[in-house]
Design a protein that fits this description.
The protein is mainly alpha-helical. The protein has one domain. Helices cover 81% and strands 0% of the residues. It has six helices and no strands. Helix 1 packs antiparallel against helix 3 and helix 4 packs antiparallel against helix 5.
């Protein structure tokens, strides 16, 4: 019986050490994967989404004409996308950028479904889920909103 307890204690100790050693490695892998996703999403938002809106690319102009809110809305959307893309790259702002971009993606899904092509609503929905994951995981690193406005 004593041998069984000793073996059990050793097994528990080894398991605890193993769990402790793999846990930081797992966290590091998740952190690297999440930063990779954030960088790719930021690049997409800045290069493939906001830039054409600012440049007045024909497709962007036509899309916002179909939406019917005027071309000013194209610029506002571009600013929100660019700010969100930059925010995703700043560790203390990434969670807040993710939350703001969730709102943008909700608007994009609604617009796709009711105004444009409903099948294209899948991409902003997937992006919205990714932004939610980013917001959830990065929130402990986020700066308090009140701290943003203090001197």
């Amino acid at each position: 019986m004593v041998a069984t307890q000793t073996t059990t204690a050793r097994t528990a100790t080894v398991a605890a050490r193993t769990a402790g050693a793999s846990r930081p490695a797992d966290r590091r892998a998740v952190n690297v994967a999440l930063w990779t996703i954030q960088i790719l999403l930021a690049a997409f938002l800045l290069i493939a989404s906001a830039a054409p809106k600012f440049a007045g690319q024909r497709d962007a102009v036509e899309t916002f004409a179909k939406i019917g809110w005027g071309q000013w809305f194209r610029y506002v959307t571009g600013v929100v996308e660019a700010a969100g893309g930059i925010g995703l790259l700043v560790p203390r702002l990434a969670a807040w950028a993710g939350l703001g971009l969730i709102g943008l993606m909700i608007g994009a899904v609604i617009t796709q479904v009711f105004v444009l092509v409903p099948a294209f609503a899948v991409l902003p929905a997937v992006f919205g889920v990714l932004f939610a994951v980013i917001a959830r995981v990065r929130m402990p690193q986020a700066v308090s909103p009140a701290a943003l406005f203090r001197r």
